[in-house]
Design goal:
The protein is an alpha/beta fold and 407 residues long. Helix content is 33%, strand content 22%. It has a five-stranded mixed β-sheet. The chain has a four-stranded parallel β-sheet with strand order 1-2-5-8. A three-stranded parallel β-sheet has the order 9-10-11.
């Protein structure tokens, strides 16, 4: 198991991914893994799935490849399974995505050979400075990728988008290294680290208006162009800073990290969820279930709109949460007044209802919609309804399966 896959047949059982006949076993394990991820995602109330390292971990050491175009070279067993794996998850109504990284990775191979040898990488792997692509790898890239990080990222996104329908991209190590001191004989002797400029993400958003890019590291202007990764506690931050939210009212972060820390500071993270932040949950086994429920159940009580979808109709409860705070919900278990309840049979009527009530200039907290739906509602129908809400300015706070009581 050199690629580091989990949830497959154990190598201690005499099974090796290097054996050609093992690929069928891997395919079956991957499909079973997709089913498990779908089940966990529904219970978590997730709206999408990001595969953190689709290429495996054989040659990348402590880092990720973030290079989907290399899949067939570094993990042929996943190359054969990936299309069906992602299709199964998409068919369940979930968005899909992968990890990408800015560097240009240069494998060593014989010129013109289709098979690439990955036992070694070029000395410049991971550095955003390369005067030209070596001849032994030129057939893998377009020449512009040697010096343009934007081109590299755009090409990676385009590849995953076209092949797997990917719209979620965790961008790992969004920094590059440039030589500070050069020695003609020894090569660069010192390097400096730079963040990719925030404006680059504005350009990527213009190129791919239907995808979400989530960088690992950031400075405030990054939030102008999409959500940011937060890993707590530690160097990655905690929640979206108030100053950032003041400058960019729709700014939000996607948070993961130590469950105990989050639960020990539960009130702060619930308030962050009310203001628009959301959370990663672990897709293999739902290990974050307690955390997600503890945060979102109180947070959605402060959502002004609750949309319930049964197999034959939809109903919206408009709730008066204007005077409530996170403390009220946590400490007093207050009842939330329902101001109005409307039933709908057609999506157009639902969209019109939200169009009359929502203003895209309002705070995120005033546009949050908590969605519950019966399992009988198909993924296509559910996403059609969610699109009708978001197109009118609504923000889906959480969408979760539920059983409708007779009342």
């Amino acid at each position: 198991n050199p690629r580091g896959w989990t949830h497959t047949v154990s190598p201690s059982d005499g099974w090796s991914i290097e054996d050609e006949d093992a690929h069928e076993a891997f395919y079956e394990a991957a499909m079973a893994g997709a089913e498990r991820v779908i089940d966990v995602s529904k219970r978590l109330g997730a709206q999408g799935v990001v595969v953190w390292q689709i290429e495996g971990m054989e040659f990348s050491g402590p880092a990720y490849y973030g290079e989907p175009r290399h899949l067939r070279y570094v993990a042929p067993e996943m190359e054969a399974a990936a299309d069906d794996f992602f299709e199964k998850i998409r068919d369940a109504g979930l968005r899909v995505g992968i990890t990408i990284r800015p560097p240009l990775q240069v494998p060593l191979c014989e010129e013109g050979e289709e098979l690439v040898e990955w036992e070694e990488m070029s000395r410049l792997e991971g550095r955003d400075w390369m005067p030209e692509i070596p001849e032994n790898s030129i057939h893998l890239y377009e020449q512009k990728e040697a010096w343009c990080a934007l081109t590299r990222l755009a090409n990676k996104i385009e590849y995953a988008k076209e092949r797997w329908g990917a719209t979620l991209f965790y961008l790992d190590t969004n920094s590059f290294y440039r030589p500070r001191v050069r020695d003609d004989e020894e090569g660069p002797s010192d390097w400096e680290t730079k963040r990719l400029p925030a404006g680059m993400f504005g350009t990527l958003n213009e190129m791919f208006s239907d995808v979400m890019i989530i960088p690992e590291h950031q400075y405030p202007e990054y939030w102008a162009h999409g959500p940011q990764y937060q890993h707590v506690p530690g160097m990655f931050g905690t929640i979206t800073p108030p100053g950032v939210r003041f400058a960019y009212p729709e700014a939000f972060s996607i948070i993961t990290g130590d469950t105990d820390h989050i639960l020990d500071n539960r009130k702060n993270y619930i308030q962050a969820a009310v203001e628009g932040d959301t959370f990663w949950g672990h897709g293999w086994w739902g290990g974050s279930m307690e955390k997600i429920n503890a945060l979102f159940q109180p947070a959605v009580r402060l959502a002004p709109y609750h949309l319930e979808i049964t197999a034959d109709e939809m109903s919206v409860k408009v709730r008066d949460v204007s005077g409530l705070t996170t403390s009220d919900v946590l400490e007093n278990d207050v009842d939330v007044e329902v101001v109005d309840r409307k039933r709908f049979g057609e999506t157009d009527d639902l969209a019109e209802f939200f169009a009359d009530r929502l203003d895209g200039e309002e705070l995120v907290s005033q546009r949050r919609v908590y969605v519950r739906y019966e399992e009988e509602v198909s993924p296509e129908e559910l996403n059609h309804i969610l699109d009708a809400v978001t197109e009118e300015g609504g923000i889906i706070a959480w969408s979760q399966v539920f059983v409708v009581s007779p009342q």
